[in-house]
Design goal:
The protein has about 290 residues and is an alpha/beta fold. It is built from nine helices and 14 strands. Helix content is about 35%, strand content about 20%. The longest helix is centred in the first third of the chain and has 20 residues. The chain is globular.
């Protein structure tokens, strides 16, 4: 029986993980902790095997960027130090693909992070500080997931899904993006806990996702169709050069499939497969009409 503490009471990923492992009531107990104020310091971590730290600040006003560092870096280190001092075996930290400072590209094991935003910088600095705490008794797993999507997931997926259902036409573009379905991510996190490992990991679905295919699959899950056309491809090409938004939607941005944590790579010497649902099945699960 593993006892796990998730920081971030309203975290989408933390809540989803809790729901996922609830199907194994004899193997895992999950509790949550708010770290919005200093009251968490009065809590004891001695009863927990794992701290899964998901709490973070993603959006604050530009003139208050020091909050990113106070929460995403300094608070993370405080939590990890307390966990280590009180005998917690494993600390799992949720970082971001944003540490690479780009919206396009093919990320490999040799790609050097160059974070540009305060959010990404604070996460990357937290990673570097955490790595110094690793030893045989205190394991730290750092995750840099790509776009996470799932039922009621906040962020880019929801915005694209809403656009897909309203647009009668969509550009027929060829690109590739690393993404991960929330249940697949939750299963991967479960594997990290089962294997009690340290390291830097890049979980993703088995297959890269094409934006056009994603839109078509979303629309079809609602029993509708969308006309795919090449008419707008020239405009998309121009947009890719000038617009960050265009690059996020139509650009190619992937993790190499040999990176640690990808399906088929090794974890403690064992090949891992945590894809609980294929791309198409995951979209149907999220968007499918009630029967």
């Amino acid at each position: 029986m593993k006892k796990i503490l998730v920081t971030g009471v309203n975290s989408y990923i933390g809540t989803s993980f809790n729901t996922w492992v609830s199907q194994y009531p004899n193997d895992y107990i999950v509790e949550t902790l708010s770290v919005r104020d200093d009251r968490w310091k009065e809590s004891t971590f001695k009863e927990y095997d794992v701290i899964f730290h998901t709490a973070a600040i993603v959006h604050v006003k530009e003139n208050n960027t020091d909050q990113y560092y106070k929460v995403n870096r300094d608070l993370t280190l405080e939590l990890a130090n307390k966990a280590k001092a009180e005998g917690v075996k494993q600390f799992i930290f949720l970082s971001t693909m944003g540490v690479y400072g780009t919206e396009i590209g093919h990320i490999t094991n040799t790609t050097v992070p160059v974070p540009k935003t305060a959010y990404a910088k604070s996460k990357y600095e937290a990673e570097q500080l955490l790595e110094k705490l690793i030893d045989h008794n205190f394991r730290i797993s750092i995750l840099r997931p790509p776009i996470v999507y799932g039922k009621n997931c906040p962020g880019n997926y929801s915005r694209l899904a809403n656009l897909a259902l309203k647009a009668p036409f969509f550009p027929n573009t060829v690109n590739a993006r690393s993404m991960i379905y929330i249940d697949n991510l939750s299963e991967f996190i479960k594997l990290l806990i089962d294997h009690e490992v340290s390291g830097l990991y890049f979980p993703q679905n088995k297959d890269y996702i094409k934006t056009t295919e994603l839109v078509k699959t979303i629309v079809e899950a609602h029993g509708k169709t969308v006309k795919v056309t090449n008419i707008f491809n020239c405009a998309v090409s121009i947009g890719l050069k000038k617009s960050e938004t265009f690059r996020k939607v139509f650009g190619s941005f992937v993790y190499d499939k040999e990176m640690p944590g990808s399906p088929g790579t090794l974890l403690n010497g064992q090949s891992i497969d945590y894809e609980t649902a294929s791309f198409k099945d995951s979209i149907i699960s999220i968007e499918g009409r009630e029967q």
